[in-house]
Specification:
- Helices cover 32% and strands 32% of the residues.
- The protein has 296 residues and is of the alpha/beta class.
- It has 2 domains: 139 residues, Nucleotidyltransferase, domain 5 (2-Layer Sandwich); 109 residues, Nuclear Transport Factor 2, Chain: A.
- The chain has a 6-stranded mixed beta sheet. Strands 3-2-1-4-5 form a 5-stranded mixed beta sheet.
- Helix 1 packs parallel to helix 3 and helix 2 packs across helix 3.
- The N and C termini lie far apart (61 Å).
Amino acid sequence: MIIAAADGSALGNPGPAGWAWYVDDGCWASGGWPHGTNNMGELMAVLDLLQQTAHLDEELRVYCDSTYVINAITKWMKGWKRKGWKKGDGKPVMNVELMKALDAAMEGRDVDFVWVKGHAGHELNEAADQRANAAAMAYRDGRVPDPGPGMPDSSTAHPAAAVGQVEPEPDLFSGLAADDLDAAPSDEEHVVAMERALLGDEVRSDRAAVAALLHPDWQEIGSSGRLWDRAEMLAEIGPLASPVSLDVLTVSRVAPDAILLVWRASGDDGRRLRSSLWLRTGGTWQQRFHQGTPEA
């Protein structure tokens, strides 16, 4: 059995993005794009691993820290394909070209996907994460990332990883049009998109995705008056009982690396005024503080 880990990374999400899979120091690969999302990286890492092991008869076990990727491949993909690559709500599947390629690569394969907690000391996951981050940083700095040695005797080397072969899609950040992504969204637009992402089931069902958006010192004062810390929120996070809309009231840059977003949340349980403070650290925007208040 081949045992590997696959991971993705995006600096800014969307931003310079990388992907990597890792078996051992002599068998790994990485790549990325100048502009992409974390989910694109996660999916591409698995796709490249599948394609580079297509000539082998051995079973494959893949460790992933993304439940989005695992569920997409093992649970949702057949239904999406049957519906013409549309989700249950009729909206197009995000990252559809990668999904179609994964569907083809999985044909006839015996693959065991195993979820692992990210950044928790899992040796293979940490190695893949380091290489994915290195690839993203290479694109940030205008360098070509180290592609790695790849899988021995593979005739398929990074087939869809070249820039231009897989176009970046809005992905989690569906509040931004594709044209906006190509034009590099402003920091303010990016923060609004991330706030919207935190309201979506796709992100809220993936604790690793939520963790990436929350600052290590994150706190929230909920509309009930309860004070939450990051660990408590990650333990409780999950899909919302009913959809919540986000209506932006103000977006203010209060410092070069700090943006205050004030917005109205509307849902089945009424309307609330919410404010979020986003900080940029090391090129990545994360929510530092959030507060909700019932609207009078």
